[in-house]
Amino acid sequence: MKNILIVVDHPSWAFANHAYGIQRYAQSDTNVSICVEKDLPLHCPGNDGSVWDAILHCSWTTANTTVRNTCNCTLVAHVGAFFEKGSSGIIPWRSTTNIRNATTARDMLPRFDKVFCVSEELLSLSSGFPGNFAHLPMGIDTELYKPIEPAEFHGDTFLWSGQPSLVKGEDVRDALLDRGVKINSISHSAHTPVKFNPEEMCRQYCSHGAFLCTSWCEGGPLTVLESLSCNVPVVSSLVGIVPELGDMISIGYKSPLDMLDVLPQVPQKTRNYRAWIEENRSWRKLSSVWIEAILS
After folding, report:
1. Computed over its alpha carbons, how large is the radius of gyration of the chain?
2. Does residue 12 sit in the same domain as residue 121?
3. Do 97 and 171 fall within a single domain?
4. Which residue among 64, 108, 161, 229 is least crowded, i.e. fewest CB within 10 A of its CB?
5. Residue 148 domain-assigned?
6. Are 210 and 158 in contact (CB under 8 A)?
């Protein structure tokens, strides 16, 4: 029996999705435990007599991790961004105010035996940092995110979901609204119930003609995978994993403002997006891939 501990920075942040997906679909010969980072002082790996074959720190960044390579096992990080102290990072953030408590990546990354990047774009940027890097695909639990019959259907309206900010492209969304594009917004942070209520999110996705992502910077976004898993078409800026999804994304531009003329056509698009997600991005398929990579 192999034992893996996955440490998440918050039980409701998007990266917790990875932990729960790996755990739920792990094979019977692998035990996967999940620990919230703030609880580590109470449950320090190894102090309770437990023995781990590997510890995965699954987070947006390694900036605030309290995991230390003091235990006799493989220590792995999975990150969505590289942060440099005193700068906006090598990912094109719109504002340095979006970097909170950033510890220099050059100090943190060498503490890990391996660092997995959420996107191929991020992997391509890793050459400027120390560490053993690889790319692991972001997944979605297709059993939680699936098509449902909505109470009301707004076929000509886009759904926008996120915490209002420049990073999430709130400025682009507002510009599209000013130009007459119909958009309903769910404004939330990772701490609000709707974000991690899959049934409610499925209802929101399926009650709209398409999902709209206007972000300027993303690790995922996870919402794109959730939408496609619900068989809802997506319009997105070219961020994060979006270039890896190919023609699954109806349109991908540097900014949705670039595609204003074709936006009305998107909600009419019909395709079995879910079948592609189930085959290529479901945790049922990816859990074993991740576990093998973590333990290798």
Report:
1. 19
2. yes
3. no
4. 64
5. no
6. yes
What tokens appear for 8 in the block?
């998440």
> Do 47 and 36 share a domain, yes or no?
yes
Can you give the pLDDT of all 296 residues of the chain as single tens digits? 899 988 887 666 667 788 899 999 999 999 998 887 666 544 455 555 567 888 888 765 554 455 554 456 777 887 776 655 444 433 333 333 333 334 456 667 777 888 888 888 888 877 777 788 899 999 999 999 999 998 899 988 999 988 777 778 888 889 889 989 999 998 765 444 444 688 888 999 999 999 999 887 777 888 999 999 999 999 888 888 888 888 777 665 666 677 777 677 776 667 789 999 999 999 999 999 999 999 98
98 with 163, same domain: the answer is no
> Which tokens in the block code for residue 145?
């995110």
How many Cα atoms within 13 Å fall on the side-chain side of residue 217? 19
Q: Assess whether 14 and 67 both reside in one domain.
A: yes
131, 8: one domain? yes
Enclosing domain of residue 241: 154-280
**CA distance to 65, 263, 289, per residue, from 219 (Å):** 18, 24, 20
Is residue 145 in some structural domain? no
Q: Model-level pTM?
A: 0.85
The domain total for the chain is: 2
Say if residue 128 is in the same domain as residue 226: no
C-beta atoms surrounding 99 within 10 Å: 18
Furthest C-alpha separation in the chain: 62
Do 253 and 270 fall within a single domain? yes
| Cβ proximity of 207 and 154 under 8 Å | yes
Q: Tokens 């926008």 identify what position?
A: 160
